[in-house]
C-alpha cells in the first residue's frame, strides 16, 4: 500500500482536476491526482478505432469559450474550422429532406415566425440570467417548477415550432426529454453559451476542433504533473475533519489538508465519506442525473456528401439521429460523419441487437445524405451511459425544482472538501471550458484557505 502526504488530493483526472492540480502546484502546493480509469481525460477521449481517429467524447471549441481557448493556446495546440461549406439538410414532419442555407430551418412561414418570436422572447429571458447564479433571478422558483416542454406548449400550438425550439437544450444539450427538466434549467443551458440564439447556431457552438483531438488538453496537463497523477485508483473512502482528509484506494492512501472532487457529482455516492456528508448534500445529489446520448461515428472512404454540395450539417426533430455533422479529421482523405441519438430514442435503440441498432441509425443518416451513408468503412457508437466512471452524457442536470432549491449549494465546500467539474459550471456549463473554469475556481479557493 502506497502512502502519500500532500497538501491537496484531487479525485478525477479530467480537465477540471488537472487544471486545478496545475494551478495548485504553481502556487507552491503539493498534489496527488487519483483517477479511477486507466487514462486521463474523463469525458474527453480520443482513440483509434479500426484505423480511424475518433473523438469519443467532447471535441468542439466555440468562440465564447475563453478558458478553453487560453488553455489550448498555452499548451501549443492548433485548431481548425469544422467543415460547413454547402447546403444543410432539414427533414420536417412529412419526412422530406430539404436543403437550405443559413440559420433558419426551411419551415412554413407561420412556423418560422413563431420560432423567431419565441427565440426573441427566450433571448430576453436569458439576458436576465446570471449563469453562475440562475437561482437568484426573481422568477427562478416559478421557472423551475414548469417543464421546458410545458412552457413551450404554452407559447404556441404549432407542434413543429415546439419541436424545433425544444431540441437545442433538450435532445441536443441536456440529452433529456423536454418534459424532464425545467424552464430554468433550459435558460441556464442557454445562458452558459451567452444566449439561446447561440445554442441554435451550430456554426457558433460547433465552431472549431483541435488538431489531433481535444483529449490532448488533459494529456498535456497531466504530463506536467508527472508522477503526481495515479491511474487506476478509484477512491473507496474519504475520511475528513478539521485536521484534513485521508483518501483511500485499493493500492494507495493519500493524507492531505484538502480534497477536491473533480468528477461528475452523480459519482459521489461511489465514495464512502467518514463521517457522512451533511444532509443538504445528500438531498442535493439525489436531484441530479445524467442525460443519455449516443454519439455515432461513421467513416467513409471519402466525404461523399461534399460532392453533392452538402456541408454535412443536418437536423430533424423527427429523425432517430436528430442532428449530424461533417466530422472529417484535419488532413484526412476519408470522410467522417457524426450523428447523435438522444434521450428516449437512445433508450429505444439499446433494446435492439447491435446489428439492428447500427442499421436503424445508418438508415436515419441516409435520409439526410442518401444511400451511401448506409455503408461506412468504420462505424462506432460512443455509449457513455455504459461507462463505469461516467454513467451518462453529457453532464448532470437537475430535475424539476432542483436547480432553484439546491443550485446555490452545488459548489459550496464541505469542510476541507471542495468540488469542481463541468456539471457545476455557469459559463461553459457541461463543456470543457466550464471544467477549466471550475478547476481554476476551486484551486483559487483552496489557495486562499491555505494562505489564510
In short:
By secondary structure, this protein is an alpha/beta fold.
Number of domains: 3
Strand content: 15-25%
Terminal-residue CA separation: 33 Å
Reported CATH architecture of the largest domain = 3-Layer(bba) Sandwich
Helix content: 25-40%
Given the helix and strand composition, which structural class is it?
alpha/beta
CATH superfamily of the largest domain: FAD/NAD(P)-binding domain
Which whole number gives the mean pLDDT? 97
Cα radius of gyration in angstroms: 22 Å
Largest sheet: 8 strands, mixed
Low-confidence stretches: none
Output the CATH topology of the largest domain: FAD/NAD(P)-binding domain
Number of helices: 17
Shape: globular
Number of strands: 22
CATH class of the largest domain: Alpha Beta
Protein name: FAD-dependent oxidoreductase
Family: Belongs to the flavin monoamine oxidase family.
Binding site for FAD: 35-36, 235
Pfam families: Amino_oxidase
Written overview of the protein:
Residues 16-447 form the Amine oxidase domain. Keywords: Oxidoreductase. FAD binds at residues 35-36, 235. There is one protein chain. With 452 residues, the protein is an alpha/beta fold. It folds into three domains: 2-42 and 215-277 and 414-451, 3-Layer(bba) Sandwich (FAD/NAD(P)-binding domain), CATH 3.50.50; 46-84 and 205-209 and 292-386, Polyamine Oxidase, Chain A, domain 2; 108-200, Guanine Nucleotide Dissociation Inhibitor, domain 1 (Orthogonal Bundle), CATH 1.10.405. 34% of the residues lie in helices and 23% in strands. It has 17 helices and 22 strands. It has helices at 15-26, 66-74, 109-127, 140-143, 148-155, 159-166, 170-174, 183-191, 196-200, 202-205, 216-225, 279-285, 304-307, 343-349, 354-369, 402-406, 432-451; strands spanning 2-11, 31-34, 46-49, 52-55, 60-61, 79-81, 87-91, 97-100, 208-210, 229-230, 237-241, 244-248, 252-261, 272-274, 288-290, 293-300, 310-315, 323-326, 335-342, 378-383, 396-398, 417-419. The strands form five sheets. Strands 1, 2, 10, 11, 12, 13, 14 and 22 form an eight-stranded mixed β-sheet that branches. A seven-stranded mixed β-sheet has the order 8-7-17-18-19-16-20. Strand 17 (310-315) and strand 18 form a beta hairpin. Helix 1 (15-26) packs parallel to helix 17, helix 3 (109-127) runs parallel beside helix 6 and helix 3 (109-127) packs across helix 8 (183-191).
Amino acid at each position: 500500500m502506497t502512502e502519500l502526504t500532500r497538501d491537496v488530493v484531487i479525485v478525477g483526472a479530467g480537465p477540471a482536476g488537472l487544471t486545478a492540480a496545475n494551478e495548485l502546484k504553481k502556487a507552491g502546493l503539493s498534489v496527488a491526482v487519483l483517477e479511477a480509469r486507466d487514462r486521463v481525460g474523463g469525458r474527453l477521449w480520443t482513440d483509434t478505432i479500426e484505423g480511424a481517429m475518433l473523438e469519443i467524447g467532447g471535441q468542439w471549441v466555440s468562440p465564447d469559450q475563453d478558458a478553453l481557448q487560453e488553455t489550448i493556446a498555452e499548451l501549443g495546440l492548433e485548431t481548425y474550422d469544422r467543415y460547413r461549406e454547402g447546403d444543410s439538410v432539414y427533414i420536417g414532419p412529412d419526412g422530406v429532406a430539404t436543403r437550405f442555407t443559413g440559420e433558419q430551418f426551411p419551415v412554413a412561414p407561420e412556423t418560422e415566425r413563431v420560432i423567431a418570436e419565441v427565440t426573441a422572447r427566450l433571448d430576453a429571458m436569458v439576458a436576465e440570467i446570471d449563469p453562475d447564479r440562475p437561482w437568484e433571478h426573481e422568477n427562478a422558483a416559478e421557472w423551475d417548477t414548469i417543464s421546458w416542454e410545458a412552457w413551450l406548449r404554452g407559447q404556441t400550438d404549432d407542434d413543429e415550432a415546439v419541436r424545433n425550439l425544444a431540441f437545442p437544450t433538450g435532445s441536443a444539450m441536456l440529452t433529456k426529454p423536454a418534459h424532464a427538466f425545467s424552464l430554468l434549467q433550459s435558460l441556464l443551458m442557454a445562458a452558459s453559451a451567452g444566449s439561446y440564439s447561440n445554442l441554435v447556431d451550430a456554426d457558433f457552438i460547433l465552431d472549431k476542433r483541435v488538431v489531433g483531438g481535444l483529449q490532448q488538453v488533459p494529456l498535456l496537463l497531466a504530463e506536467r504533473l508527472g508522477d503526481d497523477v495515479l491511474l487506476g485508483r478509484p477512491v473507496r473512502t474519504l475520511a475528513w475533519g478539521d485536521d484534513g482528509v485521508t483518501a483511500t484506494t485499493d493500492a494507495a492512501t493519500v493524507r492531505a489538508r484538502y480534497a477536491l472532487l473533480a468528477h461528475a457529482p452523480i459519482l459521489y455516492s461511489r465514495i464512502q465519506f467518514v463521517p457522512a456528508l451533511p444532509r443538504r448534500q445528500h438531498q442535493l445529489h439525489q436531484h441530479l442525473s445524467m442525460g443519455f446520448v449516443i454519439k455515432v461515428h461513421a467513416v467513409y472512404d471519402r466525404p461523399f456528401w461534399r460532392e453533392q454540395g452538402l456541408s454535412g450539417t443536418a437536423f430533424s426533430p423527427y429523425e432517430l439521429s436528430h442532428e449530424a455533422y461533417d466530422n472529417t479529421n484535419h488532413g484526412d482523405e476519408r470522410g467522417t460523419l457524426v450523428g447523435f441519438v438522444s434521450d428516449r430514442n437512445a433508450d429505444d435503440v439499446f433494446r435492439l441487437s447491435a446489428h439492428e441498432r447500427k442499421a436503424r441509425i445508418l438508415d436515419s443518416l441516409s435520409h439526410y445524405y442518401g444511400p451511401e451513408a448506409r455503408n461506412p468503412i468504420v462505424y462506432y457508437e460512443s455509449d457513455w451511459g455504459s461507462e463505469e466512471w461516467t454513467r451518462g452524457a453529457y453532464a448532470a442536470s437537475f430535475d424539476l425544482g432542483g436547480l432553484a432549491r439546491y443550485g446555490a449549494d452545488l459548489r459550496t465546500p464541505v469542510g476541507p472538501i471542495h468540488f469542481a467539474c463541468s456539471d457545476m459550471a455557469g459559463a461553459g456549463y457541461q463543456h470543457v471550458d466550464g471544467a477549466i473554469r471550475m478547476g481554476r475556481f476551486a484551486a483559487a479557493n483552496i489557495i486562499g484557505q491555505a494562505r489564510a
